[in-house]
Write a structure and sequence with these properties.
6-stranded antiparallel barrel
Length: about 100
């Protein structure tokens, strides 16, 4: 089942969604981190690349009542040729909560 994740104004149909806490220190709560996979077509590639390049996001997961500012903690993709029409890549993204 897909989980809808909003990164700024971009709606993403995420699979393998996971939420956890990062250990910051013994004296404070850990930051939230979400991780998920999603598909990106060659037609979407430019918009997704520009979005991820910002690395400063407002993240919302409405079904789980999650909302926080985030930055990329980890990222990978299985393709680098999305400039060619008709290609689809599997992306993996981890977003960590930014502390104020």
């Amino acid at each position: 089942m897909d989980t809808i994740v909003w990164i700024d104004d971009k709606k993403i149909h995420a699979s393998d969604f996971k939420e956890e806490r990062l250990d910051v220190s013994a004296s404070e709560d850990g930051r939230r981190k979400i991780s998920f996979s999603f598909k990106v077509s060659s037609e979407e590639y430019h918009d997704v690349a520009v979005l991820l390049y910002k690395n400063d996001f407002a993240v919302r997961v409405p079904d789980l009542n999650l909302e926080f500012p985030a930055a990329i903690h980890n990222y990978s993709t299985d393709r680098t040729d999305l400039y060619q029409p008709g290609q689809v890549a599997d992306y993996y993204l981890e977003l960590a909560e930014k502390l104020n």
